[in-house]
Amino acid sequence: MLRSLWQQHGLFTKQGDKGLLLVPPPTLVSAFIAEQERYQVELAAICADGEQLNQQAADFARFTMASLLATNQYLNFRQRDIRRLERMMRSLLLELADLCQQGKVTPDRLTQVFNQQALKVSQWLLKSNGLHAFQLEGDQVLVRRVPCAEYDASFQLELLQIELADLREPVLDIGCGAQALLVNALRERGIDAYGLERLDQEENPFIYAANWLDFHFVPDKWGTIISNMAFSNHFWHHHIRKDGDYASYAQKYMEILRSLQVGGSFIYAPGLPFVEDILTDSGDDYTVIRRPLDPFPFAQEETEELHGSRWYAVSVRRNR
Ligand SMILES: C[S@@+](CC[C@H](N)C(=O)[O-])C[C@H]1O[C@@H](n2cnc3c(N)ncnc32)[C@H](O)[C@@H]1O
Question: For ligand 1, is residue 176 a contact (CB within 6 Å)?
Fold first, then answer.
């Protein structure tokens, strides 16, 4: 199936630990040629049905974004970027169907089509994310690797110094990870917990699948909002990046605080001193409590490089 061709080979080439080269893997063309007749029939059926075409294009876009996000967690795709990528994938499918129908499939022609697509998607990536993720590798460009980890629930609770007995419900874990480890652990203990995550995962009625910048945080709703190494870490990234979208993060941060019930708390790490100081100085709507990380997850030398001042856990309580 075409879907698995794309899922298996993808549009870009893995380059070991370094990242993802922005050129198609050579295996993509040979795999297509090997199953050409089957793909021809499938493409004709897909392109004859608008709904199937949109679905297939959305899947191609999803796989492409998944491989990019697995390479570099600081890439960010908003709704409008996703729609653009889907349109590009739709054109690719139509072009492939057309080539097949005209009997013009050759390795050279396919290489040309996939190279053009890789170039278009690279331009889309540059437009949606700027230069921060790109790196030169000889005469080629790659998306550099910035991996992302998930932590077990007890580690997160300990690090953020959360006592289960004090948790106000409902609980929302922002950037809960594909495995939603904390959400599942809280639910197993009978706590009304939900997650918000952009990565693909099994259908789960307790997880909102969305980009947190596109998600609407309903006012006065949550008893506790948690975010370990997720929202605030990305806020930092945008705060220190030259072309960072720190304004969207600042607005979302305030929207998150307003979505707490009065008496509810937003608990996260790393800290955001540049925002918390403003909160503390602007009245008593919120109380900020900072706690040293325990266990401390880095060697001392590492923290200097990693902006030493942010490695603490925070609880911001809404007072009114
Ligand atoms: C370092 S992981 C931490 C996961 C989890 N909180 C934990 O401690 O195990 C950061 C998570 O935030 C998610 N994330 C990053 N940017 C996001 C965004 N804009 N919208 C939704 N989730 C996002 C990532 O997909 C990833 O699962």
Answer: yes
